[in-house]
Amino acid sequence: MRRRRDAHLLAALAAAASFGAAAAGGPLGIDHELGYDDSGPWRRRNQFALEYGSVLVVAGIALSEGDGSRLGHTAWQAVDSVALSAVAAQALKVAFSRSRPAQGDDPNAWFQGHGHRSFPSGEVTQIAAAVTPFVLEYGAEHPGVWLLEALPAYDAIARVKAHAHWQTDVLAGFALGTAIGVYAHTRHESLAVIVLPRAVTIGWRRSF
Fold first, then answer.
1. Which of 49, 66, 70, 93 stands 20 to 30 A from 167 (CA)?
2. pLDDT score of 19 more than 50
3. pTM score of the predicted model
4. Phi, psi (rounded to 5 degrees) for 20
């Protein structure tokens, strides 16, 4: 199990890093602006659809299945993962207050104060956090589930193309979301299931 998790984390980082190999600036020397692109598959509305759609799908499965089934339990783990990742990402954004590419062309502009929240990418963190428990739970049995990793990888590229984030912002988001997803998946009982009323977590299918 530990090897699976380590392999999952390495694969996630490799997928997200594949588009940022050119040397430039930032902590890893890879941060640079790509050509701005808000068209076709990179349109902002597609990113919004993925961001909010991932939350709705995870919540829908969790509420429908309940914590009593394997799928439902994994979905509740993903609920934990998404919630924890949102808090962690926002805390880091405030702590590091890094300027976005759209706010200037310096990838080394950290601790700039209010309004500078480039590091890490909250969207990539959230999407990686949402898919990780499902990949860990089902990836070995159904290799096609690993294709879910394409979702945060796509969003990572889109956010850099939109000049909303530097390469290390999305890499950090990918890593953070994956790590939190791994943690959520290791928990025997979901935090959300502990906190929420049993009537909510039992699942619609069992209730009706």
1. 49
2. no
3. 0.86
4. -115, 35
